[in-house]
Amino acid sequence: MKSHLEEHEITAAVAGLELEAAVEQHLGSCVSCRRQVFAMREVIDARLEDLEAEAPDWERQRQEIMLQLPATPMARPKRRLWTRPLLAVAAVLVAAIGLRALWEPAPVVDPGVVSELPVEQILAEVDAMLADDSIPGFELLDQGMDDAIFDNGTS
Amino acid sequence: MDPSRIDLSQADDALVLRAQNGDHDAFGELVNRHQRRVWMVCRQYVGAGEADASAQDSLVKAFTRIGDFDRRAAFSTWLTRIAINTCLDELRRRRREAIVDDESDGDEAPNRLDLLQDGAAGPEGRSMQKQAVASLLAQEKELPPRQREIFRLRFYAEMELEEIASTLDVHVGTVKTQLHRAVHKLREELGAYR
Q1: Inter-chain contact B183–A70, Cβ cutoff 8 Å?
Q2: Which residue of B20, B28, B114 is in closest CB contact with A62?
Q3: Is B138 on the interface with A (CB under 8 A)?
């Protein structure tokens, strides 16, 4: 037989948690322990009473709610059973492609390949082009057209 | 679950079925049965000023979406979830604290429970009880949000542990642990120890 309940047992009794049979038996017979439980419950109950005093008039609230209801509830959306498996398959495919990309070794670039470009030849062609006075892109194709553009609206 | 709650739940199911077919009277009966709980839940989240509006909003939403109710949980649990989500949406909109501070401040009140232990009858006793309630309220605010939420759903919305677990989508063991910690802390702060 317990002399008095432990703190955690009093707490459990206040919280309304499951109690061991021995604890319940003790609470039934020990005024001191029971008083500790009731003291806390009394304060909580008093707080609940305060809250209930703030509550609205239930009938009036019900009527207000009824006035706001639509004629019918929203129709239940049809479940598209095929969408989830399809999304799952798509996710697996994306993951597989991603993993494959990670696994494949990056192509090794041979530094010699880059230097095989005919750099000298390209530079010579550019020099030759620059040496030429006329730059084809800027040559006037038709002098008459040029005059017409500048004379437009002025004569 | 308590047998009387099972009966209530079965009666709810019949009303839900009718409400799903657009029967307003059946939904009105569901409102009668659950509006107190819904209001009390909203009261804990948004405070006295907004509780009525949020409760009404929750119940109208429940009717609108009753077609989605699939009976995997009890109707009361589903409805409580709607109420909590409605309140959280409102809180997000207002960018306020998750559980609103109550209007009364609650002064320091050590050993209130000890004072109450010899009975609270008579004007003096009632005054001490008021002080103890104010102190409880102040200490509740000091609890971590999850503990405070569970404590209030348990004692003020008077929900079963399993229902709280289902509503908050946590394990019932978590609810028990958090509730035990909350009560322990409150008892300690209210001065249950000598």
Answers
A1: no
A2: B28
A3: no
Residues in contact with B165: Cβ distance below 8 Å, sequence separation at least 6, in sequence order = B171, B172, B174, B175
Query: What are the chain B neighbours of A15 within 8 Å (beta carbons)?
Result: 154, 176, 179-180, 182-183
**Whole-angstrom distance, CA of residue B9 vs CA of residue B4:** 9
- Cα distance between residue B169 and residue B81, in whole Å: 10
What pTM was estimated for this model as a whole? 0.68
Q: Residues B43, A51: contact at Cβ < 8 Å? A: yes
Q: Does B133 touch chain A (CB under 8 A)?
A: yes
Chain B: give the shortest CA distance to residue A86, in Å: 23
Cα–Cα distance, A34 to A79 (Å, whole number):
54
- The predicted-structure confidence for A35-75, as pLDDT tens digits, reads as follows 999 999 999 999 999 999 999 999 999 999 999 999 888 87
CA distances for B185 relative to A83, B8, B150, angstroms:
49, 34, 14
